[in-house]
Fold:
Amino acid sequence: MIPAGAVSDLVPFAHVTDVDRSVAFYARLGFEMLHEALADGRRVWAFLERGDARLMVAEADGAFDREAQGIIFYLYTRDLDALRARLVDDGLAVGEITTGGPGPDRRLEVTDPDGYVLILAEIEGERVGVLRG
Structure:
């Protein structure tokens, strides 16, 4: 049996130098842009999908540094509170649940043993115990 708050999905989140160029490139591979975020009239984030394959791309903050973490791992759960409680009980250093976008409204950060930041996010509209109408 899978425990409450288990991770159910993983979506790579890559920092890129030009979101429009990346969207065009992945469109050649069959990806369709499902969501986007704009800032000052230009696309700064996009969510792409092709079948079961999904990818988020976002404009890198400041100068793009290929030596720095250029990808963020987004892991999804249906019960972020339960997952956070379990990780804390396991002795992991886990961030607080925060809100904001683009992307899922509820999320937290945890760092893996190699220093990669993982974003654990709740799947919108599927929070356990919450009715949305």
